[in-house]
Write a structure and sequence with these properties.
The protein is mostly helical. The chain has 20 helices and two strands. Among the domains are: 73 residues; 152 residues, no CATH class; 111 residues, Serine Threonine Protein Phosphatase 5, Tetratricopeptide repeat, CATH 1.25.40. Strand 1 and strand 2 form a beta hairpin.
Length: 487
């Protein structure tokens, strides 16, 4: 890549950080190239490039942000290009930052919504990075709720090319604007009706996701966030309304991440989860933050990053202590069990499952349960047990729990039932019951064909890989014929 003409002043800030990180020049260049690949960039830096940066040359484009992210990962604290003595540039890693204020959080997540609702296909190709989990989860754990989220004055914002608008002058809300226009404008007051609408929208999109997969209505959700929710966040509201607004924003942002995860847009999903975590802090909702971390843990399990998944589940537990309702405690321990299961850690997985079961037994009718945790019932717990026992190759126990989950689980949770049916099919296969296994998997494959869910398809493919040793058996040939007929 072409560099700017060399400057005369050596970059002492960069030199100091290289020494602190213990990088060689070649090692730093290699890490920048690797990070570039995660973003679809074919960079060709080497130790000579780093030598030029140390002499004062400025790398072009988004490279300063990439270099800053390399050091952020290594040193465990957020660093910017300016901290490295480099020119500021648009953060190529936008979305993984844990914002320092509610205003900054709105800028970051709003930018993410706008990019995602457009034709930015490359955004959905960004790679998931385990290292990007460390700083946000740590900042959430040690952080406190923001002291103030109310907005009783509206900044006049003058947009700047290529970056979020910057507040220039604060003016009081114009009373003449208090009557809601057909389209929400800047500064409009957020009402109780707005908050109720946000809750209804969340329920609608969650239902669509459960029944038909994340790909069916994901773009509609993201456009709603851009055109309806962002203007609310930039409107006016008091403290109580503001906390509820940020709570709704956290919930819908997590859902946007969940639907992205379901279509295998894993890097994008990761960014949504990080921003949902930050919004939950503005909402002063510690329990919901723990739920976001559990969601991040589940994604890490799915992608095979079991150690990171364990850490996320434990951070979630530490963050809420014993203050969360029993159902939430159950959810947190079950997430840890899933992570131990994918690592093959039998003792740790079993201990976490026991804690989850005890927490569920402590729940009482009439307990106040957050709306987002009400899905976690006996059927869901049996599902978690089934997955864990499958991963530990304890197939008889996996089959028992998967059957129980399917008996208890309501039909509206179509994708979850599909996953559980594949778990049961895998368990039957492990027990040598080939006919039953293929019959169950064929049913699941038919359901997957009706969904827009990459995860559903991948569950079926995982089962098919396990069938390979039996490929010449009659039940397997029959299964393949049925799947082929689905097109």
């Amino acid at each position: 890549m072409t560099e700017r003409p060399a400057q005369r002043t050596p970059n002492r800030q960069l030199a100091a950080l290289i020494a602190e990180a213990g990088f060689s020049n070649a090692g730093l260049a290699r890490r920048v190239d690797q990070l570039g690949l995660e973003h679809g960039l074919d960079l060709r830096y080497d130790k000579t490039s780093v030598t030029r940066w140390l002499r004062g040359q400025q790398p072009r484009g988004t490279t300063p942000a990439l270099i800053a992210e390399v050091f952020t990962r290594r040193l465990g604290r957020r660093l910017t290009a300016q901290d490295l003595g480099l020119d500021a540039c648009a953060p190529v890693y936008a979305g993984l930052e844990f914002a320092g204020s509610p205003e900054e959080a709105v800028d970051i997540v709003g930018g993410l919504w706008r990019k995602d609702s457009g034709s930015h296909a490359e955004l959905r190709k960004i790679a998931f990075t385990p290292a990007g989990l460390v700083v946000p989860s740590r900042d959430w754990l040690i952080g406190r709720a923001d002291e103030k989220v109310a907005r009783t004055e509206v900044p006049v914002r003058i947009p700047a090319q290529g970056r979020p608008a910057t507040p220039r002058l604060a003016v009081p809300l114009d009373p003449a604007r208090r009557r809601a226009p057909a389209e929400r404008g800047p500064g409009q007051k957020v009402s109780g009706g707005d908050l109720a609408a946000l809750r209804s929208v969340g329920e609608l999109f969650r239902s669509l996701d459960d029944r038909y997969g994340g790909g069916h209505a994901r773009q509609a959700l993201v456009r709603y966030l851009e055109h309806e929710l962002e203007p609310m966040l930039r409107g006016t509201y008091g403290e109580q309304t503001g906390r509820r607004l940020f709570a709704a924003a956290a919930d819908l942002t997590r859902l946007a991440g969940w639907t992205s995860y379901d279509i295998a847009a894993h890097g994008l999903a990761q960014r949504y989860f990080v921003q949902a975590l930050r919004l939950s802090q503005a909402a002063a909702d510690r329990a919901y933050g723990s739920y976001v971390l559990v969601t991040m843990s589940r994604q890490a399990v799915y992608l095979g990053h079991g150690r990171e998944a364990v850490q996320l589940a434990r951070v979630a537990q530490q963050g809420v202590g014993t203050s969360a309702p029993p159902v939430v405690q159950t959810l947190l321990h079950a997430a840890e069990a899933r992570a131990h299961g994918v690592l093959g850690e039998v003792r740790a997985c079993t201990a976490a499952l026991v804690r989850a079961e005890r927490a569920m037994e402590a729940a009482r009718p009439g307990d106040e349960v957050p709306h987002w945790a009400r899905f976690f019932d006996e059927a869901q717990l049996a599902d978690e047990f089934g997955h864990c026992h499958r991963d530990l190759q304890q197939f008889r126990a996996a089959a028992q729990h998967a059957e129980r989950s399917l008996q208890l689980r309501a039909p509206v949770y179509a994708r979850s039932r599909l996953f559980c049916r594949i778990v049961l099919a895998t368990a039957r296969l492990g027990l040598g019951e080939l006919d039953q296994a293929c019959q169950l998997a064929a049913e699941a494959a038919g359901q997957a064909a009706e969904m827009r869910s990459v995860r559903a398809t991948e569950y079926v493919r995982d089962f098919e890989r396990r069938l390979e040793p039996y490929r010449d058996a009659a039940p397997v040939r029959g299964y393949r014929d049925k799947v082929a007929a689905l097109g």
